[in-house]
Amino acid sequence: MWIYLLKRLFSLLPVLLGITLLVFGLLHLIPGDPAVILLGERATPDQVADLRQQLGLDRPLPWQYLAFLNNLLHLNLGTSIISGIPIVDELRTRFPATFELAIAAMLVALILGIPAGMLAAVRKNTWLDHLMMTGSLLGVSLPVYWLGLLLIYLFAVNLHWLPPSGRISVDAGFSFQPLTGFYVLDALLRWNWSALRDVLAHLILPALTLGTIPLAILARITRSAMLETLSQDYIRTARAKGVPEFWVISQHAFKNALLPISTITGLQFGTLLGGAILTETIFSWSGIGSWIYEGILARDYPVVQSGVMVVAIAFVVINLLVDLSYVLIDPRIQWQ
Amino acid sequence: MTTNVLSSQRAAQRFWQSPSGRVGLGLSIVLFLLALLAPVLHPYNPATDRNYLARLLPPSPAHWFGTDALGRDILTLVWYGIRTSLLISIVSVGLGLLIGLGLGLIAGYSRGKVEAVINWLTNILLAFPSILLAIAIVTVTSPSLQSVMIAVGIVQIPIYIRLARAMVLSLREQEFVQAVRALGASPLHILSRHILPASLPPIVVQATLSIGTATLEAAGLGFLGLGAQPPTPELGTMLADAFKGGYSLTSPWTTLFPGLVITLMVLAFNLLGDGLRDSLDPKVGSD
User: Fold this and answer.
1) Which of A300, A309, B17, B251 has the fewest CB atoms within 10 Å, i.e. is most exposed?
2) pLDDT one-digit tens code per residue, A83-115
3) What span, in angstroms and rounded, lies between the C-alpha atoms of B62 and B64?
4) What are the residues of chain B with a beta carbon less than 8 Å away from any beta carbon of chain A?
5) Is the CB of residue A130 less than 8 Å from the CB of residue A123?
6) What is the pTM of this model?
7) What number is the ipTM of this complex?
8) Residues B66 and B254 sit within 8 Å (Cβ to Cβ)
9) Minimal Cα distance from B141: which residue of A?
């Protein structure tokens, strides 16, 4: 098992190197001098020369790339041009926010998408199946930022049921000190029920918005995987033996349909981290996505560069974890 | 030849039997016609017709979709926005298709080191969530219509590399390819005359579905301020203007119609792609 794990980790190296090479290359593809871009047009020639030397821009490109890798390994990602805050510090506070949102969105997708897909498969070619599949097709066609605006308009502006933006109310009359940056977890750890209610209320609309596409995809995949397993001989045998239909579907069919479902769940989770940029922007969610957006608006290249790289690395690592989870889901797959 | 004609006829028959295919084709034709006819039939000029006295007016007989913060007619902007979105999507999918198909065919046929390098590039591109990669590319190339086309096109490349490579790997050992190879045909001839035509059905399906995803990605870039720049009307940019201007919630028609049209465009190509898949590859489509 450990040899397999090491092999898989080793196989990630070329891709991780490629990601760093691409991200490093992108900053150097920007027309003009990176030092001028980082300092702004009003910088004096002396300031530019100093920064060039400080960043090693006067050295050959391969040296610069190695220095970039060295800094990355030492978690030295530089500082934001606009705020002056070290990027690692920003990542420490923003990554939990994005991760919490992605987990909530995935829960929405799993809780609604899998039963919808199962129901569609069991009631194949009925109005229910057509309704579910039309809904899922609509779900993958919706621009999430538009859906977010509609949900805010309906549930926050008109009905006043849920807050329109942010992660927690600033004037709600309770004090809240985050511990881990995962606000739901922090509220639970501190036994702060008022904060928990408030945090959950803030989480609902962004999670629904971000979870819509994976929900739709999961419903389609679950339906397709369930139809595949429901047509197998062992299902016919189970039914012939008089096993209750609920048991046939939940224990025989669903368990065997789990592999494609888990693959898509993992892939979608990685995509959620990237897709969060649009949702976080709409809901002023202080995660990596909105940070990248602010970086784009302010031309804060180190922020955009680091944000993109961190999400890409997280995406690759999550895909590896999904691959490894196959062994747990399907005992026929061995650690090889 | 007769077999080819028969199978094409069967595919066409299956396509017409598929409701999603028919609806998708109908919607796509309407969208293309609207895009083509925009300069002829548009009620106002999107670049010049501004009426600051008619700012943020709700839908009315004079302005069916209302007006925006600059007093421009939203119907006209949306109409031209369809044109821009279709242009971006088709050019970017064409770009991704051409490069991806070429690299995929080479990777699948040549194997060895060339294949390893192309696979490595594919894995790197696939390591980035698509919208993020597009953002990274547009950020460094500075926002413009061309940058969006290139960025969305690059995002599409790995999909076609994977697809084309898989097709070549499955076809290259088939008897008809081996027979042509035994007759002394060059790799270029085998790829272009025999493998490529046989790979076309799944590629056509993927290209149709890609137009939908490209539309979403391009509108997403527009929403982030990285899309087509003013005065070019673009659907994502319209949503961004309403959102950043703070009137998306007070004047909801400024976001309702552009968003609806984006959804309709993506839905049209998804339905068309589903219909084509059902007709060209009935085994996959049967579920």
Assistant:
1) B17
2) 888 899 989 989 999 999 999 999 999 999 999
3) 6
4) 20, 120-121, 123-124, 127-133, 135-137, 139-142, 212, 216, 219-220, 223-226, 236, 239, 243, 248-249, 252, 255-256, 258-259, 262-263, 266-267, 270-271, 274, 287
5) no
6) 0.87
7) 0.85
8) yes
9) A30
